[in-house]
Amino acid sequence: MSDQNLPVLDLALLDQGPESAERFRDELRRATHDVGFFYLTGTGVSPALEARLHRAARTFFELPDAAKLEIENIKSPHFRGYTRVGGERTQGEVDWREQIDIGPERPAIDDPEAPDYAVLVGPNLWPSAQPELREIAEEWTDILSGVARRLLRAWAEALGAPGSYFEDHFGEAQTLLKIVRYPGTTAPEPQQGVGAHKDSGVLTLLWVEPGKGGLQVERDGGWVDAPSVPGAFVVNIGELLEHATDGYLTATNHRVVSPRAPQDRISVPFFFNPSLDAELPRIELPEDLAAHARGVAQDPRNPIHGLHGENALKSRLRAHPDVAGIWHADLVAART
Questions:
Q1: Statement: residue 328 has pLDDT above 90
Q2: Which alpha helices (DSSP H) does the chain contain, by range?
């Protein structure tokens, strides 16, 4: 355990021989069984690339409102583009942040027989005032997808399965990159930057602006801070990985508290998930691990689906009721 209240793991151990790789897998299994969160170093992501991403984020949020609203997400039936401050909700409460949502660049599916979650497939919205944003977003997505795949292999082996176990059932990854700015607040009490929640997918790699805090993770019935650590990502698992391991690995509640004005905060979560039509099967754990599987507790207000598309659609409809109301009122009605 680190001074940051979360375990620190070094991905570079996988390249330092069998004993070091086994040590990493053991640490990974323990961290995500006990906590569900950890810091990850040794990813190979360069400081120069981090700086480019940071500049691109700052440049976008400094654009005039008209330039940002050119790509407002209410123009996208696929939940892509810019969300203004207060435009997203967690557990029904307003989140105080602005952001861009960027997914895989694919054509929309025009098929009346397609499953409901097919509405999540489609093109992104890119700001004409900042054409370089697309290049850095796609480069970041490519590199972090490689990091995520290495973690999936390590998890599979740590759980007694072949290294390809998760990838064999993954299909074409459905990624989501969010570039987020949390404005500062002068309110006397901590404000909801983003409310307490568990991620709905498989895993999240979070980059946080250096020197900034605000992320909190639920541990032992309370909240602990998880500030940025130079050269490290914050990694957590989502409900799909908990579901696939019958609760042996745990998805953990977390939240972000707004910074104090005049400070603000940039963060960039990257969600790595299977194809929308993929259903991760329950992994057959070794007996000694299976004995500690907690099962998947179903909350009627937040059902966990094994099929990723259903989990992802549930999350999008709830988080963006304005987009849902404009484009998908029929889907909302069917789920209420």
A1: yes
A2: 18-34, 47-61, 65-69, 132-158, 165-168, 239-244, 287-290, 308-319, 321-327, 329-334
